[in-house]
Structure prediction request, 207 residues.
Amino acid sequence: MALKSLYKKFFALAYDIFMFPLEELGLKKLRQKVIKLIKGETILELGVGTGLNVFAYPDGIKIIGIEPKVEMIERAIKKTKKFKKNVAIIRADAEMLPFKDEKFDTVFATFVFCEVKNPEKGFAEIIRVLKPGGRLVLLEHVRPDGKILSKIFDFGNKITSILGENINRKTVEIALEAGLEIERVEKTYDGVVKLIIGTKPDKIHHL
Prediction:
């Protein structure tokens, strides 16, 4: 049991080390862009992870974050103290959010839905906890549109799926089917990463 706990802590540390060069090469700027798009006073981040978005959190607003992995939460909490941010992190899953209906003005997530086992259920939960007119902001790596690149990702996804990560999600389509209105989609890195901005309509119409 102790060995398993140690491995999880090492994995969380290794994740930060692995992500560091990617953050410096451009992901940090994309994270800042996501944070600038949040609105309102009640904000929820799905899948806080090790807290890679914390540095960009706006001052003066309390953000609630959820994360299912304890070892990730521990590292995220250290970052909230380092950057002196007002954040409450709760251990929870995106598919079963422990919040009342229509609580949040904005829900956002970065590189999370590749690990959500049931994304349809995850989006249903987002819609449930968003206020009517509330905003959803996602930064996700998805299945690219190009014929060659999409084939490469189809092959790669067979490997990553073994590790519980689906890099080939059609996240925009799933969001639309859930009933969200998509304001815009911005592609980066040849469409491998998409910034998705959506709104919860006053009345949900499923496709």
